[in-house]
């Protein structure tokens, strides 16, 4: 999609504030610093539009970005501040858990992992959790420009194995610097609209 109009519609702190539309919604989740704002900005052709992830301890909000009056990107606060997935989810709060499991307009979740390393145990818990709820997941490995191309296949297989991705589960290698992967991610999103 060629994006010209983006608006931060609401930073919601409760479900009553979610947009009252039937536009499809695509959520973005990942550990803090994984490259979520950078990915969002590449997708919407902006520099520095999507704000950087909230800091630990700050109020956790769900940020709804209206894209071209056609869909919403929903920025989910970063996880990974606590060691166990249960503690993570408490930190996240019930609002986010309920949003991801119950929102009819939510058509898919893009989960980001740092392409330079094996996914962390938090990444694995998050993927397992989303999968358990039957959520349509796209895994994106970020910062691939930091890895030599000759190592991409090996790294993709480490990510596939660590997250237990099945053959049909998509994994896209992405770089915010080179924009590698941008079109494939948009294709996945447009397939859910
Ligand atoms: P967020 O906390 O998940 O929103 O992460 P940011 O998008 O703010 O990125 C965290 C840091 O990683 C920043 O210093 C970015 O410049 C850097 N970064 C993000 N994506 C990439 C990428 O694809 N390539 C490189 N080289 N750096 C990246």
Automatic annotation (TrEMBL):
Q: Which cofactor does it need?
A: Mg(2+)
Domain EngB-type G per the UniProt entry, residue ranges: 22-193
Give the matching SUPFAM superfamilies. Answer: P-loop containing nucleoside triphosphate hydrolases
The entry's keywords: Cell cycle, Cell division, GTP-binding, Magnesium, Metal-binding, Nucleotide-binding, Septation
Enumerate the InterPro entries for this protein. Answer: G_ENGB_dom, GTP-bd, GTP-bd_ribosome_bio_YsxC, P-loop_NTPase, Small_GTP-bd
Its biological purpose is as follows: Necessary for normal cell division and for the maintenance of normal septation.
Task: State the similarity comment.
Answer: Belongs to the TRAFAC class TrmE-Era-EngA-EngB-Septin-like GTPase superfamily. EngB GTPase family.
Name of the protein in its database record? Probable GTP-binding protein EngB
């Amino acid at each position: 999609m060629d994006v010209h109009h983006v608006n931060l519609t609401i930073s919601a702190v409760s479900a009553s504030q979610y947009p009252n539309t039937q536009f499809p919604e695509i959520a973005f989740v990942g550990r803090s610093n994984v490259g979520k704002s950078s990915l969002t900005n590449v997708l919407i052709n902006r520099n520095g539009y999507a704000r950087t992830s909230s800091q630990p301890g700050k109020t956790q909000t769900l940020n709804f970005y209206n894209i071209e009056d056609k869909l919403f990107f929903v920025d989910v606060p970063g996880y990974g501040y606590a060691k166990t997935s249960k503690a993570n989810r408490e930190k996240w709060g019930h609002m986010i858990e309920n949003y991801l499991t119950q929102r009819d307009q939510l058509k898919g979740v893009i989960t980001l992992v740092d392409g330079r390393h094996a996914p962390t145990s938090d990444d694995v818990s998050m993927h397992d959790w989303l999968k358990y709820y039957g959520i349509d997941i796209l895994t994106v490995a970020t910062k691939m420009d930091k890895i030599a191309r000759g190592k991409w296949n090996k790294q993709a297989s480490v990510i596939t194995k660590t997250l237990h991705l099945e053959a049909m589960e998509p994994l896209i290698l992405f770089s915010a610097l080179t924009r590698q992967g941008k079109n494939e991610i948009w294709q996945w999103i447009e397939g859910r609209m």
